[in-house]
Write a structure and sequence with these properties.
Nucleotidyltransferase, domain 5, 7-stranded mixed β-sheet
């Protein structure tokens, strides 16, 4: 075995030992709850809980097309046997935005790469301010644009095309930027996570640095939603999140995952969102939740309501159930641009660094373990993401 491949495997094994939460639990906590239930509920129970999850998921077959779809097996309605790439788009949509004519942007863009052996999985974020070419689409009467990548979803969803159009254009944009093609696309409304968090009763989170909220203020000692524009500096009555670990209420945990007013901006938010998913997974798999069928059913019902998917011809229940073997795999989080803002000299926003371009190529060719052996600065360590 080549030395670099051995080093890469050793690196991946070391990373896996540090992260024991099941893969899908970290991504969407409902999946982890289902997987944990498989061993004890029997086939009837599995079907019931899967029904609670999948019954609310909106699905489509219009997102992935020939320019962005990966495996040919997926076109036959089957899960690929080899490596898989899934795209997750997180929307930070507020209630009433559509009525006001405000378009949603995919401020969270995550790529999940599952190795051909299905024993390792890597999660990386594309910064929302990355300047990218958004390709033209004649079916949308869109002539193309070069701007921040989170605008692709907004352009695609415009004109009543909804999440299907938004996800389609965003996926084409990510594929053009990275060279990575996808076997599935998930759209997650982070505001919809509030229902999951409420069903759980909140989660335990750790604040790593003092940060302020641009969405809430404190009036007469009470927290109130701040109407109006997003301020760039904290108002006198700003809500501050102080360092330390504590049990957060649902709205607090969700707000903390949105915070970006810090020295490292969007990269801190990326870490906080991953931390929230890990905290939700931990709570979902706790004895007080997993042994209570009523709580599990409520969580799964809420989770399904926050998910929209294109599995490219695979039935959604088959798609999710077919990934149950990944429960033993571990998620290795990766930084793009080494976790720091990489300014674009020609346009306000970020550019992809040469190393990140190589990272994307390694992902497309299923060579991430070897790549990370020589570029460990792209790994998110336990010190980067505080334990919850």
């Amino acid at each position: 075995m080549p030395a670099k491949d051995q080093v890469g495997q050793d690196l991946a094994r070391k990373a896996r030992r540090k992260r024991k939460v099941p893969l899908w639990a970290k991504l969407v906590t409902s999946f982890g709850a289902v997987l944990a239930l498989l061993g004890g509920t029997g086939i009837v129970g599995v079907k019931y809980f899967f029904g609670k999850l999948t019954g609310n998921i909106q699905t489509t077959s219009s997102v992935l097309d020939d320019t962005s779809v990966g495996s040919t097996e997926t076109q036959q309605g089957k899960l690929p046997k080899g490596a898989m790439n899934l795209l997750m788009l997180g929307l930070d949509t507020r209630a009433g935005w559509e009525a006001k004519g405000q378009l949603s942007r995919s401020d969270t863009i995550l790529i999940l790469h599952i190795t051909a052996a299905h024993d390792q999985a890597f999660l990386m974020s594309i910064p929302r301010d990355t300047i990218a070419h958004i390709p033209a689409d004649s079916s949308m009467n869109f002539k193309g644009s070069t701007e921040k990548i989170n605008g692709a979803y907004a352009w695609g969803s415009n004109g009543g095309r909804g999440w299907q159009g938004g996800a389609k254009l965003a996926t084409k944009t990510v594929t053009e930027l990275t060279g990575i093609k996808f076997d599935g696309v998930m759209v997650i409304n982070f505001d919809g996570f509030k229902g999951i968090l409420e069903a759980m009763g909140g989660v335990h989170m750790c604040v790593d640095k003092r940060m302020w909220s641009s969405h809430y203020i404190v009036v007469n000692g009470k927290v109130k939603y701040a109407e109006g524009a997003d301020p760039q500096s904290p108002p006198k009555n700003a809500l501050w999140f102080e360092p330390g670990c504590r049990n957060m209420q649902p709205w607090e945990a969700l707000e903390f995952s949105r915070l970006r007013h810090s020295s490292n901006g969007d990269y801190d938010r990326q870490r906080h969102q991953q931390q929230l998913l890990r905290a939700m997974a931990k709570k979902a798999s706790s004895a007080g939740i997993i042994t209570n069928p009523s709580k599990v059913a409520k969580i799964l019902s809420a989770a399904g309501s926050s998910l929209k998917m294109d599995t490219h011809g695979v039935q959604v229940d088959d798609f999710l159930f077919g990934l149950k073997g990944l429960a033993a795999a571990d998620l290795i989080p990766i930084k793009t641009n080494s976790g720091t803002f990489n300014e674009n000299a020609e346009q306000t926003g970020e550019q992809v660094s040469p190393t990140t371009k190589q990272l994307f190529a390694a992902t497309a060719n299923d060579k991430l373990a070897s790549f990370l052996a020589f570029h460990p600065e792209n790994l998110i360590s336990d010190g980067d993401t505080p334990a919850s």
